[in-house]
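Final report, closing paragraph on structural work. Over the funding period we assembled a curated collection of sequence-structure pairs, and we close with a single example.
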Amino acid sequence: MTRFDVVVEVWLRPGIADPQGATIQRALPAVGVSGVSELTTGKAFRFSVDGASADEAERRAGELAHRLLANPVIEDAVVRVLGARQ
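Its predicted structure, as stored:
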């Protein structure tokens, strides 16, 4: 088995209200930032998972993401395998 570093990013699905993202976007001009639109918030999880291959590690991390890290009713999760640990 090889240990793989993984990132899971979770965002609200399209059409789900994101009041935190809206508040941040409205505050941007007050801090001198312009030209930013469609700002949404989410969360990121970083962890390591054991697997025989990167594909297996991605599958295992995806199962965890969809069962525990994201609410499948209102959120989408994207899994990225960063690479194998040395």
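The mean pLDDT is 96. The two ends are 12 Å apart (CA to CA). We thank the funder for supporting this effort.
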